[in-house]
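Checklist before submission:
- one chain only
- standard amino acids only
- sequence pasted in full

Submission:
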Amino acid sequence: MNRLEVLLPFALTPVELTRDLERELRLPALAMLLGRGRLTLSNETDGFSRALPHESWLAGSYDSPAQADNSPPLGTALARAANLTTPPGCWFVLQPVHIHIARDHLVLTDPRQLQLDESHSRTLFDIARPLFEEVGQTLLWIDAATWLLRADDWQALRTASPDAACGHNVDIWMPQGEQAREWRRLQNEVQMHWHGHAVNDERAAQGQNPVNSIWLWGGSTAATDAAAARRIFSSSAGPGPQLAALGSQPVASVDALLAASGDDGVLVLDELIAPALSQDWAQWIDHFNALETRWFAPLLAALQAGRLQQIDIVFSHHAVLKHVATGKGALRKFWKKPSLSALSA
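Returned file contents:
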């Protein structure tokens, strides 16, 4: 393979925690790649974009201000990836979620934490579907965590990805636009029909949060469809909606990756997203250190052996994205010490 881009969402450390976190990281191969590499890009947003930096990078729109105020367009591509035959229109991603009631505001929690099983999700889906059909909208099932909604009249809505909104007051992250009030009305109807349902009673008995709302994002038409210019691979067996829409393929090792790839490819290592969003830094450290043996050390060895000519590491957090390029020749720059300093936001 000529060039591999490795995307590491939430590998950047919060400034106030940088010293403590980096002290616990055991990443010599990554330190070599970063220390000998060259910083080619460092972009920063205000932290209130409706898509996270890595999501916009995947969508190919990181430098596009018009896209910064909307979530990545995924709906139609996600339908295609799920082998669903859908008529032309504006298709949104719709996800069942838990919204936490804080003292004076509402907070969206990470949908990954719901661990919603198929039976419960099907039940909630069947309750919600006729509510949308009453207003001429179509709701389709993809999996327990992901549904699709056709709402042509809502095409101009500006929505936020759940990861961008996670942990924040939902008011400023709700869909905005002329049809926002209609969305809120339907969202409230679904919430009322789910409130007190047996599904949530069962979840409560198991110590799980109730599924008490839905999150709308990723609206697209055929003209704004997500598309991947290169082959995308993921270390996760169950990729989220964006990776699924881009046709991401699961890969278990560097050898398998190099055997499957062409001249260029993208490897997404998304294990740090969930612990970062929940601020579980002990788990974040464990997951990061586990990436060294499985990915960073074999990638460094592949670069040294000439099986790769260049590795570009793209890493981010909620407001910053950096890009470090390391070619095989850069490894000979012995005067540049291995370092993780680039991980500091």
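Reviewer check: The mean pLDDT is 92.
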